[in-house]
Amino acid sequence: MKRLLAGTAAAGLALSLSACGASQETAAGAADGEGGGTIAIITVDPSNPYWKAEVDTAEQAAADLGYESYTAAHENDPDEQNTLIETAINDDVDGILLDPAGADESIAAVQKVVDAEIPIVLINAEISETGLASSQIVSNNAQGATVGAEAWAAAMEYEGTYVELFGAPSDNNAQVRSDGYEQVLAQYPDLKKVGTEIANWDRQEGQEKMEALLAKNPDIDGVVAGNDEMALGAVNALKAKGKLDQVKVLGFDGSQDAVNAVRDGDLVATVVQPIVEGTTTAMNQLDSVIRTGETGVSEEKQALDCVLVTKDNADTVQNFVVGE
Q1: What is the pTM (predicted TM-score) of this model?
Q2: Are residues 45 and 166 in the same domain?
Q3: Is 323 contained in some domain?
Q4: Where in the sequence is the signal peptide annotated (predicted)?
């Protein structure tokens, strides 16, 4: 169920294709074909289980490939990202794995890395320009939102009022997931959205925004959330009001907390992003660029399908990996 798509993602995900740019041909280390050295892993927020899995996977993959690594987090702040990128360049690292802080906001930072002739691979989120990063490896967010919304709509019996918790606006994944939900749910005229709040991927903020939504819409029947942390925040708010048994909540990411909540009936479903597979793939391609100047694949933008998690398969999911 998890496979690498060649540049096209289902349900309207627009992923343009681009061959590796000329900058990759002059990547550090390519001339002598040697790996090893140091890789900078620049992520978003390791306190979030999703990004922790990203970091843990990247660090282990780097060690397995013979590299030292260090990790830094920009917390979706483009200015902090820029500082971390400049530090990595000054440290003369051999490669950078970056989870970008915004599709448009990260272009200049990636350009700096390319100008410094350091290989860079992007994971989890893409930027709005091709031909800079060696690879951009993301989850198929449109496909994931589609399967999640279909399962949630079925649980709602295709009727009722609902609200949405939206992720960080600078992250294009937030809009892609929201659009994916909308494309599915718009097919069911008896499902009506009555409110939306931005909760920035955060559990505490998700709880607070859910409380605000409940104050305005006390009789809602459902919640769709752009990620698991916001969904679990909504669960907390609904439990505090004694309303969870009346409201169907959808998550997205496949964190273990969310999978457990699906198993326990607190969430209707979540959608596993294959971040372990994606990060491992990204590190292997980064290693290839460092050693040879090429990723070994023809597409810069690559998408991995997500997997729906319901009570039927929750017991097979462990730390973002879906078993048999």
Answers
A1: 0.84
A2: no
A3: no
A4: 1-21
